[in-house]
Amino acid sequence: MPRNKKTASGYVPPPPIVEQKRLRQKDPSIVPAPPYLLASKLLDVGCTLPLVGNACPPATEGGWRAALPNKDWGTFPDGKLSHSFSSYYTEGDVERDATYADYLQRADGAPAGPGSLSTTLGHYYDFAFKTDTTTLGDLTHPSALCVLFVLVLIVRIVKKICLPRFSALGLQLGRAAHGDQWEHDNADRIAKFGEYVYRLCYHSAVSAYGLWYFWDKSWWDAAKGGTKNLWSGHPNHPVEPGMAWYYLVQSAYNVDALISLIELSLTLEWVNPFAYSSALDFLEKEHVVDERQRKEQVFKMMAKSKRRTLLWTPLFEVKWSPTVRGDFREMMAHHLVTNALIFFSSYYRFTRIGSMIFLIHDLSDVPIDMSKLANFVKWKVTTIVCFAVMVLLWVVTRLTVFPFVICRAVLLESHEYLVLKGTLDPALHDAYYMLFYSLLGALVFLHITWFLILLRIGWTLVSTGERHDLSEHKKGEKQN
What we know:
By secondary structure, the protein is an all-alpha fold.
């Protein structure tokens, strides 16, 4: 192995990242444990920042590794903190995503300068819907983020137009089944009915598209290699426009779902800033030890006085909304994990496995939405049928296909095809694989948690004949 020259302090800096990667691929056993890799990466990044970097020794002298108390820690390849790696695929391993400018350069007959409006729109259309592996397939790229922002706005506009109409449909169905008094006792249920009609329309449409688009894809067909095709040719397998837009639309829906969950479950109210000072006067000073204790007592008093207060400050308070979901914490965790997986998988070109996760969730969400709709208007037979289908699909998709097909492929096949047979830097794999495993494991845990809630709902249905939706209300619904 070629060695770098010693610095004035006698320290031998590590070789360039490209050389380090070559040596790691030759002998993966030299790669340190993930915590050391992450620590080295954080220090490498920190020394490139304007303020922090001033405290690091110059790169010519070995950088921060030269300042370690034990030089062996930073001596490549045995030092635990000696390895550096790129956070993305190194140059030459991955074909760059095509930008719009790249498309114009290679498009036949593309004009050198500005053309007519119809020509420009035609080029935009061809770039967005007929060109593989563009920047639209990477949700972290500015062009994709701009499209995503527009899609989120469109989703919210569509919801603003459709939800009142869907809620009106729920009102009509409720009146027809239970009379006019039902409307006055179920205002929150009517609002949620509109939300779930919208969700049913979305999940049905995106599931239909997913089944049509992915029907003949090799990673779903065991006869063609099955899940091994998730990794074969990675990261240079093409990202087709259908896949890129599938990801964009799914991401827009999930970002909006996160925003909507917060809007549906929490309310923000401004507090009179003088209320805190006034409240202090209500306490007799002789009953408290000091000013600090007096203020703490006021905080407790004011927090308890507010119905369903989640957070109170002298300026504003956050309350649970009357329409809060009973599984708010589980759903918030689910949306955060899902959005993290969407952006990470898009950035690292794991869109194939991401699409599998999308599809099984969407398919199982359809009977969930139907069951909730039937339950909201108290159609008992329809509720029971939809509930049975929901449990069956949940077991098949989320408790079988997801952990034993998708997660199994990640755990048992990814390292072989990405590192041993591919071009991925072993250090990059080892540094971040636990993050992906943790996110997937969190989804499995949430699926099991929700399944236990389904079992409780099923027990209530069998024992009492009533279906209490515990995902909407922790203690069950009010029966009106």
